[in-house]
Amino acid sequence: MSSVEEIIGDVIQAPSVFKNKSILYPEYLPDRLPHREKQLKMLAQVFKPLLASPGETSQRVVLAGSYGTGKTATSRLFGKTFSLIAKNHGLNVKYVHVNCYKARTLPQVIHSIASGLEIFVPPRGLSVREMLKGILDELERKKQYAIVALDEFDYFTAANAGTPAIYTIIRLYDDDMNRKKRMHFIFIVRSPQVLDALEPAISTFFLRNTIHFTPYTTKEIYDILGDRVPQAFFEGAVDDEVIKYISILEGADAEGAGSARTALEILVRAGESADSSGRSMVTIDDVRKAHVVVKPELAMLQDTIETLSPHELIVLLAIVKTLKESSSPFVRIGEVEKTYKMLCENYGERQRRHTQVYTYIMGMRSMRIVQTKSSGKGYRGKSTLIGISNAPLDILERRIEEILTKKLV
Ligand code: ADP
Ligand code: MG
């Protein structure tokens, strides 16, 4: 038996597909954000007056978009870069990022802003107004400007719905028009609807000043992953086909929700799956396995297949076996039918006609067991391509064979 030291040592020394895994973590801030150029430009437009006429107005802008669309990364990268540019203009601008999921009450938010600005505010004994005044005075003394990003602002509005707390920040300068405007805001929300609950004047202002982050398309996810892969993986570890497949799984115009975060997570898990099998390359089946881990709701597939008829199960088994042999994400229906014919002979079942097999496949597609697409150019004639993304093939194959044996006796 191996000693504990050997067990741990083996794992630590085992080769890995990753050159630098942390490049793929959500908290890593890349120095480029493909397909967010437009949003960065709009942010620059909003904060341009801060350089041209510092202190004249307080800028406020909303970033809105669903999970994983790059709102946080864009805001951080903008803040970091804008501060640098401002410095070259001789202006002291500090970017502060506050997560309202963690700081939901007004005093917590103000404390987070203060600590981000490295300004001391006593933990208790001061009113909200006094705290804010303390921060603004200190900014004045330091001749500093602040861009405050309130991320996950949905949580703040939900926790403070109908209370004046919401307006304290939004209306910071309203009753002190003559003060130099040193504090500026980026409000980050998932859904712009949360802003409808605010006073009409404010929600109208917000809606007019919203920068939208749309879910990423297949091509956009492909570009985003493609940009990270060479930094994160050793050369040759991740095939173009793997990146393409993940893009289809997560692209908003294909199977997914368009989240770069989910796509990156599938990529990390797929790499880990290759590592744990001691392989130097990530396979399509690693991606399938990762896909189920990242989206556990897909595991339902295992129950769904129980409801299939024996003949549908044979067709599904044919798809699984053909996919396994090809090691690509999709196979042509013609190839599946060849395997299917063989399986029918093995199981002593009468072979169904092409149109019937096609109908079975479309049925399983509507149950989200398989995915289909039309072969584009490059194939002779048009053909239906079939893939399975919601389970690793080995596990699925064993499961189908089990159920078939039960059902066919
Ligand atoms: P959100 O805040 O909208 O939920 P994030 O900004 O946290 O999304 O992005 C999620 C992950 O995806 C992060 O790891 C981020 O670096 C990455 N990401 C998002 N958009 C892009 C992009 N356009 N280019 C490169 N990476 C991106
Ligand atoms: Mg975010």
UniProtKB/TrEMBL annotation:
Listed GO biological process terms: DNA replication
Keyword Glycoprotein part of the UniProt annotation: no
Keywords from the named record: ATP-binding, DNA replication, Nucleotide-binding
Pfam families given in the database record: AAA_22 (PF13401), Cdc6_lid (PF22703), WHD_Cdc6 (PF09079)
Stored SMART domains: Cdc6_C
Family matches, as InterPro entries: AAA_22, Cdc6_C, Cdc6_lid, ORC1/CDC6, Orc1/Cdc6_arc, P-loop_NTPase, WH-like_DNA-bd_sf, WH_DNA-bd_sf
Molecular function via GO: ATP binding; ATP hydrolysis activity
Residues engaged in binding ATP: T69, G70, K71, T72, A73, Y216, R228
Transmembrane listed as a keyword: no
Domain Cdc6 C-terminal: 316-400
Cited Gene3D superfamilies: 1.10.8.60, P-loop containing nucleotide triphosphate hydrolases, Winged helix-like DNA-binding domain superfamily/Winged helix DNA-binding domain
Job description of the protein: Involved in regulation of DNA replication.
Family statement: Belongs to the CDC6/cdc18 family.
Family annotation (PANTHER family): CELL DIVISION CONTROL PROTEIN 6-RELATED, ORC1-TYPE DNA REPLICATION PROTEIN 2
Protein name, entry field: ORC1-type DNA replication protein
UniProt source species: Fervidicoccus fontis
